[in-house]
Design a protein that fits this description.
The protein has two domains: 191 residues, Sandwich (Jelly Rolls); 138 residues, Jelly Rolls, CATH 2.60.120.10. Helix content is 3%, strand content 36%. By secondary structure, the chain is mainly β. It contains two helices and 28 strands.
Length: 434
């Protein structure tokens, strides 16, 4: 079935949507007889006894229940891993990688997943993983379900048509999509090739950060998040369901599409967000606010204010601070930071080496900051209002140490000379000069 892709707005709302009129039962979640001969099925994304405002669940009304599939058998998972990693010793070093090349052989989104780093434990529902994808083939007869965590997908090149049990979402670079744990989906390519980043969170689901003194408006606004309206496909044939479960991959045969939910209602659903709608907060006097002002979404950790993962962006913005070193300053902090670049140039690394599609990792308490040329240019610059227009970088920032995988350290993308970008930083100290 085809239809115009439609969306519902608002982060965390309770939605009701049907692809056929009258498919949603009235007044009963699981009536004795469901309209159109459908099956009622509940998907719960939190503990049953979670606080009412935190409880996540969705009722599906589908052509076949999800139990209709063949037996799962182990599936080769390539370079996609889950925490805890069986990896080499985590280097006490700043790390940076070149972009992942597009495959020469045909690969789907699911087949192309490569893990770069992870922390925590997928089985204990704590921590996260950073994956890359680079694919050139649509998942025409295969579908995926992740039982280990949520996928935050950040495209860097190419558009994706993400088809889910709740409906369809089309995303492009500068947009993101979140697919919650347990939701079945399929990725179709709208361009010849696609590449990007994924943050898989094992811990608590993403929420909007508290705004504190900012007040009621700013950063990512709830109304700008879009959840798809009901859409379904009814088709038969030899198909496959790929399941990520307990850090391993399994596959089960299907004789029908699992995206056959004709209607649904609830608050546990995938969503997309356009990063260009982010309401950037910045200083208009002097100094830098902490980078937390750039937080789009946060996965809360065990202690309030100490995140499992923060998703932070550095978008196009005005720089107007007076008597201030405007690029990111030299710093060390308790959080571990995986950075990626979607488009343009990151203002702390203008000399090259940090390219769109590439990444860097600055783990807990490892010093980092602007390269030598960026520093020298910034201290000499005439401070006028400046608009950074050609840039969109992001950061997966975690309170847990990110451990790189063997591929990340030995797969050919790691830059051996990253630390040389700071070698030109010389002393300017003069005890006789204030």
């Amino acid at each position: 079935m085809t239809q115009t892709i439609r969306y519902q707005n608002g982060f965390g709302n309770h939605f009701s949507t049907e692809a056929l009129p009258g498919a949603l039962p009235i007044g009963r979640n699981s009536p004795q007889k469901v309209p159109y001969g459908l099956y009622a099925e509940l998907l719960t994304g939190t503990a049953f006894t979670a606080k009412r405002h935190e409880n996540l669940r969705t009722w599906f009304y589908r052509i076949r229940p999800s139990v209709v599939h063949g037996a799962f058998v182990p599936l080769a998972q390539g370079l996609c891993e889950s925490a805890p990693l069986k990896a080499p010793v985590t280097p006490a070093a700043q790390l940076r990688w070149n972009p992942l090349s597009f495959p020469k052989e045909a690969k789907t989104f699911a087949e192309s997943l490569i893990t770069m780093a992870a922390n925590g434990d997928a089985g204990m529902r704590q921590g996260s993983a950073v994956h890359l994808y680079a694919c050139n083939r649509s998942m025409d007869k295969s579908y995926m379900q992740n039982a280990d965590g949520d996928f935050l997908i950040v495209p860097q090149h190419g558009r994706l048509d993400i088809r889910t049990e709740c409906g369809r979402m089309i995303i492009e670079p500068c947009e993101i999509a979140v697919i919650p744990r347990g939701i079945k989906f399929q990725v179709q390519l709208l361009d010849a090739e696609a590449r990007g980043y994924i943050c898989e969170i094992y811990g608590q689901h993403f929420v909007l950060p508290y705004l504190g003194p900012i007040g009621s408006s700013g950063l990512a606004n709830a109304r700008d998040f879009e959840t798809p309206e009901a859409w379904y496909e009814e088709k038969s044939g030899d198909m496959q369901l790929i399941l990520k479960f307990g850090g391993q991959f399994f596959a089960a045969p299907l004789q029908h599409s699992p995206l056959d939910a004709v209607a649904w209602h609830g608050n546990y659903a995938p969503y997309r967000y356009d990063l260009r709608r982010f309401n950037t907060i910045n200083t208009v006097s002097y100094d830098h606010p902490d980078p937390s002002i750039f937080t789009v979404l946060t996965s809360p950790g065990e202690h309030e204010g100490c995140a499992n993962v923060d998703f932070v962006i550095f978008p196009a913005r005005w720089m107007v601070a007076e008597d201030t070193f405007r690029p990111p300053y030299f710093h060390r902090n308790i959080m571990s930071e995986y950075m990626g670049l979607i488009t343009g140039v990151y203002d702390a690394k203008p000399a090259g080496g940090f390219e769109p599609g590439g990444g860097s990792l600055h783990n807990c308490m490892l010093a980092h900051g602007p390269e030598a040329k960026a520093y020298e240019d910034a201290v000499k610059a005439e401070l006028k209002p400046q608009y950074l227009s050609q840039t969109l970088a992001f950061m997966f920032e975690s309170s847990y140490l990110y451990r790189p995988t063997r591929f990340a350290l030995e797969g050919g993308l790691l830059q051996s000379d990253y630390a040389s970008c700071w070698k030109g930083l010389t002393t300017h100290f003069d005890a006789k000069r204030k």
